[in-house]
Write a structure and sequence with these properties.
Layout lengths: L1 E10 L2 E9 L7 E5 L2 E5 L2 E5 L2 E4 H6 L3 E2 L1
Antiparallel strand pairs: 1-2, 1-7, 2-3, 3-6, 4-5
Length: 66
């Protein structure tokens, strides 16, 4: 996979770094890799592990792009 661009997005109140990737299955194969992130809420540490999502699943999260 090739990284097309890297940007920040606010997803569910958490700012995450996102890589937009082009896969090997042709022009329409776009994926989004969310980098590992964490935040603290009411004394609890919430950790999001790194994950790669299809374009449809990424946009279902309703990200706010910055």
């Amino acid at each position: 996979m090739t990284t097309l661009k890297t940007f920040k997005a606010l997803i569910n109140g958490t700012l995450v770094t996102v890589d937009q990737l082009k896969g090997n299955d042709g022009r329409q194969d776009i994926r989004y890799k969310l980098h590992r992130s964490q935040y603290t809420n009411q004394g609890y540490t919430i950790v999001y592990d790194e994950q790669t999502l299809s374009a449809d699943n990424f946009w279902k999260l309703n990200p706010q792009i910055s």
